[in-house]
Amino acid sequence: MTPPKVSVIIPTYGGAAHLGEAIQSVLDQTWQDFELIVVDDASPDNTEEVVACFGDSRLRYIRHETNRGVALARKTGIMAAQGEIIAHLDQDDLYHPDKLRLHVEFLDSHPEIGFTYNSRFELYPTSGAIREILRPSPRLTLEDFALAFPLAPSVWVQRREWAVREEIWQEPFYRGREIVICGRLYMAGCKFAMIDRALNYRRYHKNRIVKNIARQCEAERACQQIIFDDPRCPSQVRTLRDIAASNIYAMWMYVAYLQGEYDTAQDFLLQTVRLNPWLMEGTPPHILNDLVIDSIDDEGESLEDLLRRVFENLPQELASLRPYYSWAVMRGYLMQGVRAVMWNRLAEADAYFSHVAAAASQLDAAFLQWLVSHLLAYEAEYGTPAALDAIRQIASRLERLGVASVRRTLQAEFFTARAFDAQQWGIKRKVLSSVTGVLASDPFRLWSNRGLLAALFHSIPFLEMFTH
């Protein structure tokens, strides 16, 4: 019997409530030459019954007799897989119908690539509506894997020879193995490539309690150290140890605030800014923008209440942040309004924008960077006209709040970022069209931005000769 082209691995523990939908999203693929392996990590619920309901010969069920953790459940599936391509899916996430087809077609036409990944839709935990598209860099480096792990396992697709590589499974890890897997594969010479589509739906669960926050944080930091201590790790990457640790502390700091574990949260916040002092620079300090972004992940939670809990429980050493509470609330409502506009929830958007005052002061570099990253991800999925229409809708609401000429500003920011994004992808025609968009929106920007000029020169063959 001919083995399947693709093996999809779903590790699961106590996930029967959503597992059926995950399985169905695989069975609904436009690429049908696959096997689906569900590895039950000794679940206490009716996981086996859920799997048995499907009655599909491509579906295989493996059960651990004792709970061994998600990473080892994933390994069990990989070692049992027959496919030459290994794809991954978490128990409560979903595949887009074209997920496997697009990855297989790319890998078949690019034999030098060992690991592909894609963007993903992030869903609100309360309503299940789309919150945003998270779009990774098309050119991931070892720095990316060490600094802040950018790829959830559900977006991974690997060639078998890389997925079974022994060095990525050597040590037992409590948490954070993904950092080690991708970092070691990169240092071993595995080439990564991105499929520029949102091909997964990632769900979060409201009121889920995370146990042993301090232990989980330290486990991820230990995984970072494995990468930094590897003799193959370049010296310029090792200089990022402190910032990498700061990123991990920042992530777990907010989890601790959400769960009311304020002593842990305060300790992690102090560690975050100690290891990366830049976060306390700026007016307001950069750390606050990150806190706001974390606070708008669930539209079912009161933004003001979440931020109040954070600001009322700041460590005394950072009391200087407390006067920025009102600013943070306003920034959060502005970001929520922008998201709602992009996903055509216009009444919801107007409700968010009604809370925003002094909008012009909110359009700082951090906000504009956040906005254009969302617009670029939106454009990759739905096209340039859709992104420009979102800009028009956002600008009209900001103009009602007294921000003059904002549409041209937002378009210039978008096309500038689009030019650099196209340069990363090596799409010269898109660089040229982006520069044209900048000229139409803000002609002076081109001449004052050397990076934009360089991108333009490198995209015109005749001019490129003179830059070497």
Describe this structure in words.
- The chain is α/β, with parallel strands linked by helices and 468 residues long.
- Among the domains are: 6-202, Alpha-Beta Complex (Spore Coat Polysaccharide Biosynthesis Protein SpsA, Chain A), CATH 3.90.550.10; 412-468, no CATH class.
- It has 22 helices and nine strands.
Question: Could you provide a short overview of the structure?
Answer:
With 468 residues, the protein is of the alpha/beta class. It is 53% helix and 11% strand. Strands 1, 2, 3, 4, 5, 6, 7, 8 and 9 form a 9-stranded mixed β-sheet that branches.
Mean pLDDT: 93
Multimeric status of the protein: single chain
Give the termini separation.
Answer: 56 Å
Major beta sheet summary = 9 strands, mixed
How much of the sequence lies in strands comes to 5-15%
CATH class of one domain: Alpha Beta
The H-level CATH homologous superfamily of one domain, spelled out, is Spore Coat Polysaccharide Biosynthesis Protein SpsA, Chain A
Please compute the radius of gyration using only Cα atoms.
23 Å
Q: How large is the count of helical segments?
A: 22
| Apparent shape | globular
CATH architecture of one domain: Alpha-Beta Complex
- Uncertain segments: 462-468
Assign the CATH topology of one domain.
Answer: Spore Coat Polysaccharide Biosynthesis Protein SpsA, Chain A
> What is the number of beta strands?
9
Structural class: alpha/beta
Measured as a percent range, the helix fraction is 40-55%
